[in-house]
Amino acid sequence: MACSPPQRSSFMPLPRTYLRSSGVIIDDSFVPEAKSVQKRKLSQKRKTLPTQFSISGHLSPWPMHASGQTILQNRKPCSDDCRKRADSWQQYPMGIAKPRYLEQLENYLRKELLLLDLGTDSTQELRLQPFREIFEFFIEDFKTYKPLLSSIKNAYEMMLAHQRERIRALEPLKAKLITMNEDCNERILAMRAEERYEISVLKKEKMNLLKVIDKKNEEKISLQSEQVTKLRKNLAEEYLHYLSERDARKILIADLNELRYQREDMSLAQSPGIWGEDPVKLTLALKMTRQDLTRTQMELNTMKANFGDVVPRRDFEMQEKTNKDLQEQLDSLRADYEEVCKEHEILLQLHMSTLKERDQFYGELQEIQRTSTPRPDWTKCEDVVAGGQERWQMLAEGKNSDQLVDVLLEEIGEGLLREKDFFSGLGYGEAVPPFLRFDGIVENKKPSKKDVVNLLKDAWKERLTEEQKENFPDFFFNFLERRFGPRDAMAWAYTIFENIKLFHSSEVMSHFYAVLMSKMTESVYVNHKETVAQLLKDMTSVDSQNEGLLSMEQFSTILKNMFPLKKEEQIQELMEAGGWHPNSSNADLLNYHSLFMENEEGQSEPFVQKLWEQYVAEKEAYMQEIKEELGLELHHEVTLRKLREALMNIDPSLDRQTLRTYMSQAFQLPEADLPEEGDEKEEDIMTWLQVVLERLQVSDIRRMGPREQEPAS
Description:
Blueprint lengths: L15 H6 L15 H11 L32 H10 L10 H20 L8 H14 L4 H125 L8 H29 L5 H59 L16 H9 L4 H19 L2 E3 L16 E3 L5 H16 L7 H31 L4 H10 L5 H21 L6 E3 H11 L5 H11 L10 E3 L14 H25 L6 E3 H11 L5 H12 L18 E3 H10 L15
Antiparallel strand pairs: 1-2, 3-4, 5-6
Helix pairs in contact: 2-5, 5-6, 11-12, 12-13, 14-15, 15-16, 16-17, 17-18, 17-20, 19-20
């Protein structure tokens, strides 16, 4: 074990007398002439101390316990004398005060550590800096031990540098370890999700198999009961058959015996010498006859006892036939009664609905009578509308007063729009659509209604062929830039917007305006066009002769196959819109190409208009059923699970993908983020009922099947 140096409170320079006695020669005139940059900094630090000390000055001999004490020369550092001497020093009293230099160094170290502790962590490397400075002070003051102390300091510094390099080398491994930990966690979560999905699938399969087993058990029980009933019926029939056979056999035996007796009697009567026979023989014959009579009487009594209540077979068969006829009549009457009951219930429901309609119509009549005004004379508009009487008659044909008001407003608005040469920009507010954000004046291009319709049709064609679909307003403005250039794009945007906002009667303009202002999704317009195209395709495929003609029966069949959920009245409305009249026969031919034609202004024929009107009415009825099924007020919240249950109740034929699409549109969530059916997260996703209905109203939502599933045959 190495010998420890003498106990000192700090590394203080030894006094001159002690150094001389130990054999160390100190030159008082020794002063270093040059110092390194670090030593100059260190000396500047030392100037901050109140009192300067150096080896050449007088150093305090503390702790000195014996003035004449000397150190033996040529002693080994770890000798026993050294250890004993160190132990003897500890026995001296410690009454002498610390040197001032030691106190100043301790105070300096304490202040530096306090300053560092105010703003930094005590474990950081910066805390070692005051200790380095104090150690540098010792190295500078102890010139004799400077090489040894410097080597000690350098060894520790090298070890610290080596440890720093090791830490820096391990930091990327730490980051990589964190990344691998995150990846493993993600994989574990993904595997758990897959396991949950597989478990749910297996549970569903288990429930289906249990249902199949229950169904098979029920079928087995029903078959067993049917077989037992059939066997009992066969046994009863066989019993009756054998019973009738036995009765017939006994009757036949009786008839044979009677015939035999009659024959014997006749033979006795016809015998001429009967009175001449022996009396003994006659007595014996009489005895035998009496025995036969007794036996016959017993058999007759037995027959009466056994078959006294039995009816003849002929009567039984007649009664059985009569009973069968009466049973058939009863079944027929029962079926007629059930049909009459069903018709009676239907008539009652029809009567109730008629009463409701009567009350509703009566209320509307009262309201109309209360608020009605004299019917306007629309012939006055002939002189105001451009084109005169002929054009007004063409515009007003088949329109009611409300539609005539729209037509008149469009004509007036078109005239005012023609008079405008410029439009004022709406600015850059958030309420302004992106394609109209402009500050200034733009030119009115004044296109005709036909030009606007053709431009909108071209925009739809380009939109449908676009691979990566962008936002519809952005696509509209980019289309105008590609068509008219960046300079005129804004002017055309304002011009087309004012036109489509004005002409509500034009289908192309009204649909484009609804999609552009997010009042209707693109899928509604696209699906409507696809439905019309599919109808034309089906009619063309039926027209094998390619004559462009269809019979009304073929036309009706195509409509029923294309729209299986439409009622008979709706099919009749479509046929009437196509040109069929109730008084005409089904053999009349129809030019089906004329049903899908459009005029110059993009207005379609009444058949296509009726299709759109029926779609809107069916959508409104479907939305009303959803609202009634939820049974909530508009300011109440509805959860994802409640909406799923409501949709499945009113439309059980909805497939899983369509159901998730409807819920994604209602809650504005990607389909991938929707929880699975039965997940507890469904209760956490909720929004206002009014918001759900508004989002579904603008989307393409329609019924996929009847509300109540028909029982399987």
